[in-house]
Amino acid sequence: MIKALCIDDEANVLNVAATLIERYVPEITNVQKALGANEGFEKINSFKPDLVFLDIEMPGMNGFELLEKFPQKNFDVIFVTAFNHYAVKAFKFSAIDYLLKPIDIDELKLAVKRFIEKRSLIQNVNQQYSVLQHNLHAPASDFKLSVTAQNGLHFIPVNEVLRCEADGNYTHIYTTDARHFISTRTLAEYDEMLMEYNFLRVHRSHLVNRNHITRILSDNQLELNEGTLINIARRRAAEIKDMLR
Fold first, then answer.
1. Helix count (H) and strand count (E) of the chain?
2. d(CA 90, CA 97)
3. What is the pTM of this model?
4. Residue 54: how many CB atoms within 10 A of its CB?
5. Which fold has domain 139-244?
6. Are 107 and 99 in contact (CB under 8 A)?
7. CA angle 59, 62, 64 (to 5 degrees)
């Protein structure tokens, strides 16, 4: 049984969101609505939801200011936003789910599925939102990557990610200080996020930080500065070699 609360300052958007949840997300058994942040504050205290669908830009008190009123959050949040591309990247890096307006049904189902899967993994929700705030206001080069792993949530500066390696629906992440994490995200998701940050998909199983490549070996391998050898896909070998030159 999952209780959900929708908070938005536009009544029509609020009604549509609640209707979509009731109609298409059977895992949520109880949905309530709050018009604006002030009513949302009261409803969170009285209804005690497991999950809050939260608008960000609201008059008087925005979504982030509302969250600050709960130092210890006993609920998770899926933001509903019309934010621009830069802000959307900040959400992705922070491992916090969001839905763009107007809400897409498939995206709604996927966001709730991820919420259910990660409920038992994330202990420090407050720190996760702190990282989101950091990413929203920092230059992209200073983003922190939130990694949901099997032993909790970790926050890694992007420039400290050495390489990522696929393992089915999981990804092994290796850092410059020799840490190793097993993320519940796929390599394709990290490829999409990191391609603008000097990362290169050299193989279907390997994504590497170009800043840490020292040389290309003759047998279609890369050597990283800490000694790891990474295979280059044969069909992309010539292209990748040209890019690295």
1. 8, 15
2. 11
3. 0.71
4. 26
5. OB fold (Dihydrolipoamide Acetyltransferase, E2P) (2.40.50)
6. yes
7. 175
